[in-house]
Structures are given as structure tokens and as C-alpha cells.
Task: structure prediction
Amino acid sequence: MERKNTILYLVVPCYNEEEVLDKTAGVLQEKMERLRNAGRISSQSKVMFVNDGSKDRTWPMICEWTKRDPLFAGLCFSRNYGHQSAILAGMMASRTRADAVVTIDADLQQDIEALDAFLDCYEKGCDIVYGVRNDRNTDGFFKKATAGIFYKLMHALGCKTITNHADYRLMSKKALNALAEFKETNLFLRGLIPTMGFQSDIVYFDVKEREAGQSKYTFKKMMTLAVDGITSMSTRPLQLIMLLGFLTCLLSAGIFISCIVDWAHGRVVPGWTTTVASTCLIGGMMLLSQGIIGEYIGKIYMESKGRPRYIIDAMILREEGESEDGKD
Result:
């Protein structure tokens, strides 16, 4: 299949991004115009901002940009549903109109110039292209350390994640249609997409400093994402609980046999400290195990409800030559 003059949609999730949005829109507008002029993308290509329940002026600013230029489109959630849902909503809204979709963060720390390499891979037949950062030099020590631990833990638990890949990626229409078949509520796209099996490639890019504002990915949100990723992509924690229970039983059996031997030889050991320590250890392991099992049960409970992953309150999308009221 010929992959030229691609209809490309950029999906940009936004949450309280009023400080950086004008800068972002200008940069994306200029980049898309350059790609159009070079014949890399179609004139039907668009930038779709997804407003994830922002509490500031993000949505009014998106509306203003859609009025200025039909290049821009807007999608607005009824409330905050989270970064992963915003990305998914943008991709699902774009897949019927686009040949390929690229997701990128609103702060533009991910190098927009990597789009050329993304399109190169797509034109060569790749259906998924992952953007992977060259280094984490722009991160603080704590974030750098926790990110390293996160990826190592995910790999140890059998999750197929791409190290140092966030959500900067290209997906073809075929890949997006396949992704639409996944119905789970507990979303972890970074782990889900690599399991799909389409031809893929990696594009490396440098991370820039944030233009304005602060990162919306707090420590709490990163922890939530990590838990969601582990529980949605792996059952190995449950297997580890079973192994831990087995080892604890062996240890208990050994202690019991030792006590019997001491009793038979008339050696009476008070053992108060040992009793308390072992009781606390076993009690702690039991509570931890119940917590992990409870997390999985909670995910099953949420999946069984079958609730929508997001609710769209408004959508603005105009074609070239179409007025704001939808008339030529």
C-alpha cells in the first residue's frame, strides 16, 4: 500500500495547560505547515487537542484556536478522566479520519522534529512507531531513579514495556482499529500497545525543558500509573504471593520441628522475642498479600461494571473552507 500524502492527526492531551497552550499551538501549526509544504502530509491533517477536564482556560483557548485555523480540532471531556483516557479518546476520535495518529504531550518536551522520522518509518510499512528519549538528563534525581525502578519492575513482572517510552508514538489506522477492540477500563497503553504485534520501530529523540507551567504528572499520579500498569498487564504478583506463602510454610514447619526437638531434649527456651517477631512478620506478609489480592479484585469489580472510559462533552472539528457554523 502506498503511504504518501498521509492524513496525519496529532493528538495532544491537555490538563490545565493555559500557560503553555498558545506556544504549543504555534509550534505545532508551524511544523504541520512545513510538513504540508514538503508533501509529507495531506492538507486534511489536523491537530486535535483533548481537554481532560481542565479547571483553567484551556478549553476556551482551544476553542479560539479552532476558530482561527481549521487545522485545529478540539475534544472536551465532561470531567477529568486522566491522561491515558485522554490519549485514547483522541486516537479513537481520529482513527476514522486519519491514516496515522501521533500522540504528544502539550508541554512539547518531546521533540516535535522527530515527526519526520516517525513518518519515514510509517512510509516504510511500520504500523507502530515508538518515541524513546535518549536520556533523562532533564529529570530530577528522584524522578530519574523512580523511572528506572519502574521499568525494571515492569520487565521483571513480564510486562512488555519499551524503556524510556512515554506516550509519544505513531499508530496507523490498522493499529488503531485493532486497539479499538480492547475494551478494558483499566488502561495502560504503554504496556498494551506493544502486545499487539504489528510491525514497529523506534525513533530516539532528545527531551527539552518545559516551556512554561509545571508538570501535571505528580508523584501520586505516577504511582497510580505504575499500579495500573502492573495489575492490568501481569498476574505475577499473585504468583509471588503463592511462592511467599509456600516459603513461609516451609519456614514454619522448620521452626515447629526445631521446637519439638528442643522439647524432647528438655531444652525450654522462653522465645518471647522470636514469637513476637515471627508473628509480626507473618502478619505483615498476610496484610500485604491481602492488599495485592484486593487490588486485583478491585480491578475486576471496575471492569465488571462496564462503565464508559470517558464521556465527551463537546467536539469541534472543521474542514478546510468550512465556516464556524459548519457552512461554506
The mean pLDDT is 81. The chain has two domains: 8-219+308-316, 236-305. The chain has ten helices and eight strands.
